[in-house]
Amino acid sequence: MESEVSRREHAVEKFGVRKVVIYVILVLWALINLFPVYWMFTFSLKSNEEIFGKNLIGLPWEWRWNNYVSAWHTGNMPLYFLNSVIVSVSAIALVIIASMMATYAITRLTWKWSAHVNAFFMLGLTIPIHASIVPVYVTLKNMGLTNTYFALIFPYAAFSLAMGILICTGFMVEIPKELDEAARIDGCGAWKTFGVVILPLMKPATATISIYSFLQCWNELMFANIFNSDGKYRTLPVGVQQLSGQYTTEWGPIGAALVIATFPMLIVYIFMSKRIQESFVVGAVKG
Amino acid sequence: MKRKLLSLLMTGAMVLSLAACGGNTGSGSGSGSGSGSGASGVPANSATAGETLANVGDITLNMWCIATESDSNRKSYEKAIADMQAAYPNVTFNWEAIENEAYKTKIKAAVSANDMPDIFFTWSCAFLQDFVDAGRVWCLDDAYQNYKSELPEAMLGNSTYNGHHYGVPLTMNIVGLFANMDLLKQVGYTEIPGTYDEFIKCCDALKAAGITPFGCAGKETWCVTEYLESVIEKSVGADALNDIFLGKSTWNNADVAAAVDTFQSLVNNGYFDPNGIALGNDEVKANFMDGKYAFYMNGTWNCADFAANEAFFPKVKVAEFPVINADKAQLGQLIGGPSDTLAVAASSAHPEVAAEYCFELGKLICHYGYLDGCGLPAWTPYGDTSSVNALTQEVAKICGNATGYVLFGDTAMNADDARTYLDYVAMVYGCEVNGQEFIDGLAKDIR
Amino acid sequence: MKKKDVINYINVILFLLPGLALFIFILIAPIFKSTYYSFFDWNGMSDMTFIGLSNYVELFTSKAIGFWKALGNACLLAVLSVFIQLPISLGFALVLGRGIKGERAFLSIYFMPVLISTVVIGQLWLKIYNPDYGLLTVALQKLGFGDLCKPWLGDVRTALMCVFIPTLWQYVGYHMLLLYAGVKGVSPDIREAARIDGANESQVNRYIVIPSIKPILKVSVIFAVTGSLKSYDLIYVLTPNGGPKHSTEVPSLRLFEMLIARNRYGMGSAIAVIMIILCFAFAVLISQAFKERNIYGK
Lengths: 287, 447, 298
Fold this sequence. Notes:
The structure holds three protein chains of three kinds. Chain A is mostly helical. Chain A has helices at about 1-45, 50-55, 65-75, 75-105, 115-120, 135-140, 150-170, 175-185, 190-200, 205-220, 220-225, 235-240, 250-285. In chain A, helix 4 (about 75-105) packs antiparallel against helix 5, helix 4 (about 75-105) runs parallel beside helix 7 (about 150-170) and helix 7 (about 150-170) runs antiparallel to helix 10 (about 205-220). In chain B, helix 10 crosses helix 18 (about 415-430). The longest helix of chain B is centred in the C-terminal third of the chain and has 21 residues, at about 350-370. Chain B contains 19 helices and 14 strands. In chain B, strands 7, 8, 9, 10, 11, 13 and 14 form a seven-stranded mixed β-sheet that branches. A five-stranded mixed β-sheet of chain B has the order 2-1-3-12-6. In chain B, strands 4-5 form a two-stranded antiparallel ribbon. Chain C has a two-stranded antiparallel ribbon with strand order 1-2. In chain C, strand 1 and strand 2 form a beta hairpin. The longest helix of chain C has about 35 residues, at about 1-35. The two termini of chain C are about 40 Å apart. The chains are: A mainly alpha, B alpha/beta, C mainly alpha. The interface of A and B includes residues 49 and 70 of A.
């Protein structure tokens, strides 16, 4: 009896120790992952001298908010920011529409080649985004799309499409087929079923697709650099690059520009994280 | 005094015939023009400079360049373009600045797709040659007629292919031996040693005093070439090295092997910061300005940066690398030359106008760039140049005494060979190959 | 009946149209073009010369290109990714998925490195590895291991690992979030039932949770492997020339060198084609492997 109690106490204690260890690891890992954010922020307020060795991780000696002023006044940062938003949002919208429709055709309509077409789309997951710069460039140019928002929207959407379909499939197979049946009995065609029955149920998928596509588009540099030369359509990553020169580079303003480019995304992520994470839970399970 | 200095510089440049790297271009396949002047109806050689431009009516021209906001050339571009817009209000001029590395990708893709702007920045020699060979660049022979007196033909050598001119040079730069005089004073030198023996003695003294003589960014191989090419040139002479870079003679040259061994002995003697192999140029330059190295060999474009740092500027001096083998090489043989260039696209809707605009603009960019200390002028300088920083003036003096130039190897060679060359240079710096293996490997691998 | 079929097929086509159009124009057609280019000697600008399979032969035989080494490195990264990165991600996913105080905060923080631009991450790690004043060097010196210090990214023995560590670290959060979603999807009832039957935490994970998130594990493994084969950004920032003695060379570094630095468009295309084939083959293989397991597992 006594030994029974002590054993249980021992177990409780062991469990407590285990919990502490887990928390220590979790917190340590959190610090490691927060460090880049802290570092980026302080780096954006430093001088080259500090960045190159004099003051690596400390707080800036002098808080050079001026770096933000010069970053913001480089070229036309507010415009680049707006362009990035336009391009990303449009690409995401396009991915959502195209992948929902394609997924509907693949998972809900019955036809011979659906599995093959699905596999064909999955090919997109494996293609390195930069492997086809010149052919894509020539195609866009022939279609007269260079120096328009579409020059980036279409490629970004195309490269996110496979993932979009993968995620949508996960969500769509969860929706009971009986709903389609019921709709058909009510006299709905495929389009009406899609619009009235399926789409409303696919809302959670949009968040997941959005974050994935957003990750693809927001920091993309190579396409953005090549396909659009008109400054009117320049996106943030290209704008940030503008801050470094052939012969001299001031790193402080680059840091500031990167903060300007990254922090909105972090803030959106933090505020939306609950929703995004929940939709991941629903969506990715069957992916 | 200053004027004398400049005239010295210019005579130096005029007398020299810079090695024309495009001279041996194979086909020169139909460049856009040949005698473009006919199209405008005005015989180019009778028109005066700027006339076509002023009379053309309202048109739009586009330009791409690499003068981004933090580039030291930015201000000279802005001033030059403002002047041009004031002088030619009929020409709507749009320009985009793209970061250096990104620009290389962008301009090549644009040339592939034949989607170039009217005027574009390019590096001379091999970089431009590919575009010229593809027939995408407008020939500037006619437009040049009006600028002969202001732009010495010798300065066009690096952008001349098959005897035709395709580029407007802006500034030129050479490799300078920069020294932190505070550190040199600590071991008893008040001047940069002028002979190789004394130079080595100085390095030994520095080493003994615990000061690292050289900093060199191994992560960016072009930084290594700034040292290696100077050592080779001062061992084998400018002509021999030029012939090798331009493919006129092979790498199979025992003198080059010996020079590479000389360079490696500098590395093995511990004159170089061993950590440099993992550093980028920004980091090495910051170290140099921070007093970590006594010497830093790099392009003279750094003058503007050094001059801008008030604390550091009084400490720094620049000189020519000393002669190693006096039988073959001599002082006045330099590494460098005009490389920054503007060119006109053959696909431009108004190539003649663009060509003239290109010359006028290039002249102004060169002028303002020189005043800012971004490099030496390829064009004959004009106006009051007394505000040019002392370091750049010293470089001008060195160039004034120049007898021969060898363009940077990776600019002179075509892209594929240049990369192979850089690979071998990296191996030399990492002491993976010796001089003999270096020349054997290059003789074999360069196509 | 016939008419219905026709309508059905028209619908299928219409539904697929936006996706297929995007996909074919932007992804598939360029791949065919790249494949075509890979049979030519072409600098991307001037005339093309047909050389058959020469690019491929040179790619796999030339010592100077060192493609085998680059492939080997990419495969090593894939192995490390599957056997080190994924288990770490899975560990965090299991702990957080079980429900723990601060779950959401941890989750958000762990995902942050994925959101931060590679330029920043790269610069940060350059500062960590800097041989003069880098954090790693300073830390080792303070701990009395100063003689171990070396130019981390400049030394053949350490460069590859120094490049791989941040590459693996950055995406732990990404895989964790995927797997976490799976873990959360396991119904609490099943968990509870297993508990009542006397299973402890690790047994629940081992026999209940992990088997039920297999589909997600599959996706994660495919991403980890194809991502490793394609990896480029961070490796380029840390060692733009492929590191000392080409020790950090990976296929995409070679691809870009051929395409951009060397103007060898045909050869660059050949590398792209090989990469696409490899990625696809691995994706199929991994899917198959997971299917087999399922059959034998049951």
